[in-house]
Amino acid sequence: MSPSRIAFAGLLSLAVAMGIGRFAFTPLLPLMLRDGQIDVAAGGWVAAANYAGYLVGALTAARVRWSAGALGIAALLATAGLTALMAVPGVPVWVALRFAAGVASAWAFVATSVWCLGALARAGRPDLGGRVYTGVGVGIALAGLYCLGAAAQGASARSLWLQLGALALVLALPALHAARALLAPAAATRASPAAGTLPPGTRGLVVCYGLMGFGYILPATFLPVLARSLVDDPRIFGLAWPVFGATAAVSTLLAGWAARHASRLAVWTVCQASMGVGVLLPSLWLNLATVAASALLVGGTFMVITLAGVQEMHARAAGNPTGPVGRLTAAFAAGQIAGPVLSSLLLHVPAFATHGLALALQTGALGLFASAAWLWRQARPSSNRIAQEIPHAR
């Protein structure tokens, strides 16, 4: 199988796992609100269940005694089925299904990183790895545009869940074929008991990465809802999520250029601060301009931060980086859980019921600004040294 086909299969795997398995709920939430199936507070708990599942999946992926190819196949098939089952009504059912979908999407993300990037490295084309991660933004944009078009035709949220489940299965077919073909050489590695030990000086990176998860997940969950509060036309408010995903896809391609002109920590710092601005804006002035700016600033930075953070941890973790990168991913997942939970708790407090989401956004922005300041201090003395020691990681 050619490297370009492997990269394309990995792209589609991440598009299904993340764009649909993790984030299909975001463009569908305003439609579920429109149909009277759920309220914003309950939506926060359903979203939090998915992020809790992602945390569990991130912590358990390396412990599942399957090869990366087999784990990826199972996770993608589960993603399609669990998405379609969201057509079954009831908040408790949705909580359970979104939790399971979170586990499946984490497994698919980890498995794809192993079988796809490993195959590209063996083929001598590791440079194609950046294309693989555009799948996250492509999947988000595709799911958002699909929901936008269907909603404009009057489709119900329930029917859209069934359609997205079928779409996930169709899109996953090339990835299923590639993962099966690469099943033997892509066997999952087993981390040693000490593999989870963090390298010196990286605990702060883990905290910053977790704060990014907390800050970005609020607009990532509620941007279409905020847009819907301004205009009830799904052809307009539904654009917020496709713009978010398209910006994420483009930013991943630009990340390689940025890495050639600045250190990873410097890129991470700028993106962390820019994301803070994007998170803060809708909480101060809620209009279509700030919602659009938030989609651009948050969508355009979260995947760049993901790449920079994982690459930085890889560079600092000599030998086996699986455990340290897993800790990074777990912190990210924990931050994603805290965001929707905080917003739901605030919305249930009578004194904060009208502006609980704004307070949660401001809290997330504060964490992003504080972590950006810490990263900036780290970037100045260390960036040149690390770049010189491990130039290939850039």
Oligomeric state of the chains present here: single chain
- The percentage helix is over 70%
Report the CATH topology name of the largest domain: Growth Hormone, Chain: A
Tally of DSSP β-strands: 0
Which stretches are poorly predicted, pLDDT < 50 over at least 5 residues? 186-195, 382-394
Choose one word for the global shape: globular
The radius of gyration computed from the alpha-carbon positions, rounded to a whole number of angstroms, is 20 Å
Overall structural domain count: 2
Question: Quick one: CATH class of the largest domain?
Answer: Mainly Alpha
What is the averaged pLDDT score? 83
The helix/strand order is: HHHHHHHHHHHHHHH
The helix/strand class is mainly alpha
Strand content: under 5%
Main sheet properties: none
**Discrete helix count:** 15
CATH architecture of the largest domain: Up-down Bundle
CATH superfamily of the largest domain: MFS general substrate transporter like domains
Distance, first to last CA: 27 Å
Explain this structure.
The structure is a single chain. The chain is 79% helix and 0% strand. It is mainly alpha-helical and 394 residues long. The protein has two domains: 1-189, Growth Hormone, Chain: A (Up-down Bundle); 196-394, MFS general substrate transporter like domains (Growth Hormone, Chain: A). Helix 11 (264-284) runs antiparallel to helix 12 and helix 14 (322-348) runs antiparallel to helix 15. The model is unreliable at 186-195 and 382-394 (pLDDT under 50).
